[in-house]
Amino acid sequence: MLKQVEGSISTAEAIGLCRPEVICAYPITPQTHIVEGLGRMVRSGELKNCEFINVESEFGALSACIGSSAAGARTYTATSSQGLLFMAEAVYNASGMGLPIVMTLGTRAIGAPINIWNDHSDAMSMRDAGWMQLFAETNQESVDLHIQAFRLAEAVSMPVMVCVDGFILTHAVERVDVPAQAEVDAFLPPYDPVQVVDPREPISIGAMVGPDAFTEVKYLQNYKQNLALKLIPDLASDFKKRFGRDSGGLLRTYRTEDAEMVVVAMGSVNGTIKDTIDEMRADGFSIGLVTLVSYRPFPTEELRNALKGRKHVVVVDKSFAIGMGGQLAADVDHALRNVDGAPHALSCIAGLGGRPITRASLRELFRKARKEPWEGMLFLDLNQKVVATEIEHMGSMRRSGPIAENLLRRLSVTPAAE
Amino acid sequence: MLQIRIHGRGGQGVVTAAEMLSVAAFLEGKHAQAFPSFGSERTGAPVVSFCRIDDKEIRLREPIMEPDVLIVQDPTLFKVIDVFQGLKRDGYLLVNSNKSFAELGLAHAAAKLPTGHARVVAASEIAVKHIGRPLPNAVLLGAFAALSGTVRLQSVAAAIREAFSGKVAEANVAAATEAFEAAASAAAAA
């Protein structure tokens, strides 16, 4: 049914349609509306056979999810930013034990400095934790990816994190087609666990494993993600057959057929990039886009095929590893490794802590990539002047003070102002 | 694509206004996208929200920097921020005030727009009359329907009834209708 609703609400409705049996989450902006929506659905009885468990923290939330998933219940949680960090130990445990929990991550920056706005730092902090990570481009795709995520997670018995851009998607009101219950039921069969903690047939899950088998357990975690690489395109094509929409998959291409330059990005920024590409194409600039949906497992081969033979590749990361570079850029480099005549991937860091990514800045970026390619990271719309002044200030005295507050004073804005 | 930027203060329903407008456009079969300027919202602080309306899918996620329409829920904002920033030459301006543009010191700015594109509506007064509180957001959407013709009053009314219920919804619909008629008759007079 077509609706004009906030992204958090359509996402909550999609999760409800997946018939979760246990939801355990702790509220944190910008994910709050999703779990509040689900809480209302449980309380009103709209979502049946589901227990909503209130806990004291994010660590408690995911720990309870681990228990309920191990007991054979379809289990869901959601978090953001510092909340995901507080879950960290349990994040690794959920994947290490092979529990098919589905989590929504309302992606958001990580402090300090305190920042509630969107970027991909939180998702990237857990990219190596063994969860599959799928990035939604729109609120429609958020709905569709959650429905696919439960089937994917349960098929390989591994957890899935659906990454939805905080605020930009979670708080945007737009048109979304929310499927009917019967359609979702036909796509997503009831959960049939591969392992169940049951007092009638006692087993252990989460045992200590020493050097004699730890490597093998980890190898099999990776083996499951490799299975998922094959399964994700199949699920997307089955989804399309039933629902008529291109959602999910490993990656999607846009106007790449003859493109000399190809941009790679994840999440909601792909919409703005597509509009920019249309404008630049109209001016005769040969450019296309690869929208990466599945970040974990990483579709190395598919990405290599999409990028080899191009003249220029520009990777737009919404986070970076301090002291190293953009995480997506590094993974794109990996995909292009050992490819004859591979294009040099240019790395751009954009949209940190909620800074808007505009068509004007993207146009300038793509033109620069063709005219004057750079080494290392290019920070989109970086305020060079304020950075240079602070560097000079730091060098001028020992007690130069806190950087964040110094910058705010220089920009004459108070911490609470937008 | 029509791009609308709404300025107001925390507590005036700035975000709800953009959402209701997007619902009104959706009900007419259009694509619409509404989103707030994501900040730490506090009562009384300047707040901005955005709405895009188009006949095809809206993919753009940048803030609206060059609006076709400005809706200003609080005229004191003109002294605090550059409300007019990026407003298109042939754009529309709708201000909540019981004063004229001349009295607001905005005669020059209003005169730069095409005839009939700038309007003051005493939305807070109309709101007090119908709702009992000076909440101008839904009221101004009624005036917007008359001013731009992008959405019909009945769609605005339906959107108000989706956002609110019962007496509050009906009071807001009555207020929006009065603002629509005031703006429409002012247009006829011009």
Would you mind describing this structure in some detail?
The complex is a heterodimer of chains A (418) and B (190). Chain A contains 14 helices and 15 strands. Chain A is α/β, with parallel strands linked by helices and 418 residues long. Chain A folds into two domains: 2-243, Rossmann fold; 252-379, Rossmann fold (3-Layer(aba) Sandwich), CATH 3.40.50. A seven-stranded mixed β-sheet of chain A has the order 3-2-4-5-7-6-12, sandwiched between helices. In chain A, strands 9-11-10-13-14-15 form a six-stranded mixed β-sheet, sandwiched between helices. The two termini of chain A are 36 Å apart. The model of chain B has no long low-confidence stretch (mean pLDDT 94). Chain B has a single domain (2-189), classed as Pyruvate-ferredoxin Oxidoreductase, domain 3, CATH 3.40.920. Chain B is built from six helices and six strands; from the N terminus they run E-H-E-E-E-E-H-E-H-H-H-H. The relative contact order of chain B is 0.17. In chain B, helix 3 packs antiparallel against helix 6, helix 4 runs antiparallel to helix 5 and helix 4 (137-148) runs parallel beside helix 6 (166-189). Chain B has 190 residues and is an alpha/beta fold. The chains are: A alpha/beta (418), B alpha/beta (190). Chains A and B meet through strand 8 and helix 9 of A and helix 1 and strand 2 of B.
